[in-house]
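Any chance you'd type out a single protein's sequence alongside its tokenized fold?
>
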Amino acid sequence: MSKNILAVFAHPDDCELKAFGTLRKYQDLGYNVFLLIACCGSGGISVQDQEQKNINVVQENRISETEKALENYNFNIKVLNYNDGNIFLSRDLIIDIEKVVKKIMPEIIITHFYDIMGVDHQDHASVSKATINVASRCSFVNKILLCEPLMTLRSSFTPNVFVDITSHFEEKIEALQKHNSQHGRFYLERIYQENKASFYAGSASYDDLKAAKKYEAFQLIFEKF
């Protein structure tokens, strides 16, 4: 029987930012990787830039960037048709995610952390809650992992799973560089990614920090053996 892992995210680039190395590591373990993205990311630019620089993001470009970022890794990608910035926890969102989950029957689900402090993107919280709602009702799901929010130290996120992604870190950086429409975002820059990944390495083990290893971190909210 096939081993499947499903990552459910709100926007293009969320996967690459939050869980790319971990998904690649699961691939190494023989898992098929599936990615569900709730929206096309057409709102992936600040209102200020839209008004002052007359810049718009074409949604097809953002999906194309994700496809290029992941094209060498055999990720199965599906995109829903929700509006960027206006994803709300609803019956429709739960049903759309549930259809995908029941078709794939993943052992493991990764999604956003639902930040109750309001410092993370509102779309992330909605997608997270809907995904957890679905996953919690599926007996074939053995593990649910929540990714770190952007403003980790201002949220209630408590990482308790640390994944060594050292062997896939350069791949992650290359994947992030495919998101040209998001150029200038600090969290896409190498220095930010290196420092964050090193911080989590040190959180897992001081020896790993000294060895210059790189980690991703998650909050485990459910696991069964």
Remarks:
- The first helix runs from residue 14 to 18.
